[in-house]
Amino acid sequence: MKKAQLAKEIQDKLKCNHCQGVFSGSLKQALKVVYEGRNSYCSDACRKAFMSERFSKPIPNRGACLTCEKDFFSRREAKFCGMKCYTGSRQFSEMLADSREKATKAESVAKRIKAQRTGEEKPCLECGTLVYAKKCEKKKKYCSKICYRAYMAKRFDRQIASPDRMALPQGYDGFLDRNLLTCTVIGCDWQGHHLSVHMNAAHGITAAEFKRAAGFNKSTGVVSKPTGQRLRERALVGVAMDSSYWGTIDKNGNAGYEHRDSLEAKEHRAKARALMGNAPMRRCECCHSVFQQSTPYGKTLYCTKLCRSLFYKQAKLNQKNGYTEVMKK
């Protein structure tokens, strides 16, 4: 009770952890400061600036991009300034054609292992190990996340992600597809296999806080490739054998998952869209012109936002005129 009263008292006297300014925050911020000892920030700009200083390092100049010929900065050796330039290059087109040919061959040699099973076995596109995919998992192509990251890291430049779209580390698949991980904190030269443990032990940042700040998925193990392989081969014991315990636990004691749109998830979606190839051609419902859809997913009805607004405006006007004629009758 005393802590709740203290939170109400300091609600108007919170101190920003970045600019050190005093500001009036919400009761939720004050409660987190009192009960959990968390830092508070006066704005999103201050929070992002603090995290940028904490988790960023100087980015070297990599020269001219092979597509747009503009100078760009990247933490690792790269040839393209961003994913858009990479997916529009000749190298990406050749890689995509080769990958589709391999995927077609992999699907053609897949066989069902048992008559009573509705799924089928397919060779992993990275290591060739046969992977059983259920009927609802026909698109499963990899035996594990380790092979998925290795496959993506080979086909996408490890630093094609521009800093304004993805925070550190740039290129999550490439970062985790290494034998040794490096610390992302300024001035720390640590190298090892389990970055989450190092962040907690050396810098006082819990694994959940580090993953959220660095943009990893909550379920991602921030470990090196050999460590991930050993953990995958380890036998399951205890609650790990029961899938009902996986995920987070809510107030009622039910298991579930926290759905958070992390930067790692956005990177994977961008790569998946790029590998699908060109989007289909559509005809605008308003001006009837033919245009190419921006993404292979879904169905776009209008070529621009202006056409969509004009179509809605005309439909609303027609509806109003029809109602007026009915009232006159």
Describe what you observe in this structure.
This protein has helices spanning 2-10, 27-36, 44-55, 83-87, 90-108, 145-155, 172-176, 195-203, 207-214, 225-233, 263-275, 305-328; strands at 14-15, 22-23, 61-64, 71-73, 120-123, 130-133, 181-182, 191-192, 248-249, 255-256, 281-283, 290-292. With 329 residues, it is mainly alpha-helical. The chain has 3 domains: 2-55, no CATH class; 61-237 and 259-275, no CATH class; 281-328, no CATH class. It is globular and about 65 Å long.
Task: Please describe the structure with a list of short key phrases separated by commas or semicolons.
single chain, 329 residues, mainly alpha, 3 domains, two-stranded antiparallel ribbon, 12 strands
